[in-house]
């Protein structure tokens, strides 16, 4: 029987690096997902799978897509990867759809300590306003404003995707607990060899070739501190005015400035004691259950469990 693995995230756990540098490059996989071959043709379908209610979901087109991959005359592992599954506004609907398409699949997730995952998510995504009307799109949002907003609407915010136990229990109920595989982002950072060996055992590929593909890989790096400071400045001065458009060599100057901003050191997002306490309050109970239900040593990486 063809092995099928569904990688569901989570956010800020090197998903893009794995997709671009390993999943889409390794010849031992039939890969379906971001940066995969032909993604421009089916990207709208997998986006709808995670984001749309049944009223708008093109079910039959999705059935055809997944069946085409399932029926490939190949012994390679069929791997479907989409970290947006974890932040779906319809998590139960999304999980049931995946079970309908791949009932025999194994589920893979890479988790990360919420204390580091949330600041990382904010630096790359929360720091600018989106989606928003054009006159407000990409305006700077402070960490306090973003966190307060996410807390107010937590079930519709990125913070919901860090309740690992809550989400994985849903998948365990559908697919079976023995088919759930949990890896740690912290191990990817501190002991890549061990992480890659475990990953390759799950997706059934050679670990040496995988290690070579991932050796120096680092995609979607954190936004630089310079970029965030520039966002703050433009939020107060000349917002929405293309000030370089009328300058001599405007396009050239704009590119040089953008290059300078992007080349700065990664932004340092410091959580105040207030937000550390709030994050601990939010996730401790879920993390305790996560450790118990899936036999995980979360204390090793200091996950909030007070």
Which fold name fills CATH's third level, the topology of the largest domain?
Rossmann fold
Span of the ends, CA to CA: 44 Å
Q: What's the β-strand tally?
A: 5
Strand content: 5-15%
Helical fraction: 40-55%
- Strand ordering within the main sheet: 2-3-1-4-5
Average pLDDT, to the nearest integer? 92
The biggest sheet, with number of strands, parallel, antiparallel or mixed sense and barrel status, is: 5 strands, parallel
Order of helical and strand elements: EHEHHEHEHHHEHHHHHH
Gyration radius over CA: 21 Å
Which segments are poorly predicted (pLDDT under 50) over 5 or more consecutive residues? none
- The number of distinct structural domains comes to 2
The helix-and-strand class reads alpha/beta
Name of the CATH homologous superfamily of the largest domain: P-loop containing nucleotide triphosphate hydrolases
């Amino acid at each position: 029987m063809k092995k099928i693995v569904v990688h569901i995230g989570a956010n800020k756990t090197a998903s893009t690096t794995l997709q671009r540098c390993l999943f889409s490059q390794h010849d031992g996989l039939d890969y379906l997902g971001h940066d995969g071959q032909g993604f421009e043709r089916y990207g709208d379908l997998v986006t709808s799978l995670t984001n749309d209610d049944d009223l708008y979901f093109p079910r039959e087109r999705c059935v055809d897509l997944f069946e085409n991959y399932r029926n490939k005359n190949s012994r390679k592992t069929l791997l479907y990867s989409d970290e947006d599954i974890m932040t779906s506004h319809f998590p139960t609907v999304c999980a049931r759809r995946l079970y309908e398409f791949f009932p025999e699949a194994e589920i893979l997730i890479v988790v990360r300590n919420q204390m580091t995952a949330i600041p990382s998510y904010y630096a790359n995504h929360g720091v600018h306003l989106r989606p928003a009307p054009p006159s407000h799109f990409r305006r700077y949002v402070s960490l306090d404003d973003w966190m307060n907003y996410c807390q107010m609407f937590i079930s519709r915010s990125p913070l919901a995707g860090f309740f690992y136990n809550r989400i994985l229990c849903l998948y365990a109920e559908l697919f079976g607990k023995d088919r759930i595989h949990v890896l740690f982002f912290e191990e990817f950072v501190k002991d890549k060899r061990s992480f890659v060996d475990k990953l390759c055992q799950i997706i059934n590929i050679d670990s040496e070739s995988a290690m070579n593909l991932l050796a120096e890989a680092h995609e979607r790096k954190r936004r630089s501190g310079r970029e965030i400071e520039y966002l703050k400045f433009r939020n107060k001065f000349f917002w929405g005015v293309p000030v370089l458009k009328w300058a001599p060599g405007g396009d050239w100057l704009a590119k040089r400035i953008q290059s300078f901003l992007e080349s700065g050191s990664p932004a340092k997002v410091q959580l105040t004691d207030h937000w550390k306490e709030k994050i601990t309050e939010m996730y401790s109970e879920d993390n305790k259950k996560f450790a118990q239900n899936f036999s995980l040593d979360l204390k090793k990486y200091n996950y909030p469990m007070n």
